[in-house]
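User: Can you help me understand a structure? I only have the sequence.
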Amino acid sequence: MKKVVMVVVGVLAMASFAAAQVTDPSNGDVLGAHNVYGRGCIACHAPHSGAGGNGANQDQFSGNIALWGEDLSPLYGKTLNFGDAGKDAITLPDYSTVAPTTAHDPYFTVIACLSCHDGNLAKTAMMKGTTFEQVTIGGLTFNPKTLLGNDGSTAGNYNNDHPVGPSATPGCGGPYNWDCVIGTDSKGNSTMLFTGTASAQFLLDYLDVTSPSGAIANLVGVPGTGTTSANGSTKINSWVTCTTCHDQHSMTDFTVGTTHYQTRFFVRGWYNPGNSSTSNSAAQFCRTCHGGESNEMHGRTIPTS
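Assistant: Let's start by predicting it. Here is the structure, written out as tokens:
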């Protein structure tokens, strides 16, 4: 929204940006948990023979895209009911007969991520099912669950997972969105232009999320300029996929130009809820799409901390 130009306003903003820079004393590999017990890149990208190269089941196209080394077949053709009451369901393609033509196929992105992070249809051998990072909420310290379809609730429950897919589309206007407008980029894909008073201020208080590394710029591009929904908002025709919010190749670092910021859980943004009791970086990241809940749309200017 998912290569960023950073705008710094005032001494307070500069101080808050500096405080967010990565200071990981362990200087660990940015892959973090995706080092997968030392296997690193080859855990997902088998250099030879696709899923068979990692001892998993193969189909006729196994590994042909992105050298993917996990078994995708259990997810072929399945409909997953993400979001409230499954209203944002996504039906995954069946790649057993027709393979995707590129690793940038958004459906391939979703199915590849789920080949490790589903846990219901796609069983995993090496996953522990919880995050590497711990969180502390109200004095309770724990590791959040990571297997979407096998998280300890009802098996196959995806209603409690953020939606991805063609129905997961942010918008402009109405009671829940930014005061932005829908425009088109150079490829004819619909995009959000933060030209309103509040949305423009958000770019100053967080990061320029509309530039290439920002979350909004990592939406799945679909040609079109948006359609008007019933609540008066205009929905963008580009949709959220897994890599809109997550950078699978960096668990700890979010880079803006030559400056590095702390992130956690592979989030594609400045996202460090554990840096202080007053930090708002996690909320600010969510507000990239959910502008109606932002400080700026409520008339407040609060730099990210």
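Now, to help you interpret it: Residues 1-26 have pLDDT under 50 and may be disordered. Residues 10-25+165-298 form one domain. Let me know which part you'd like to focus on.
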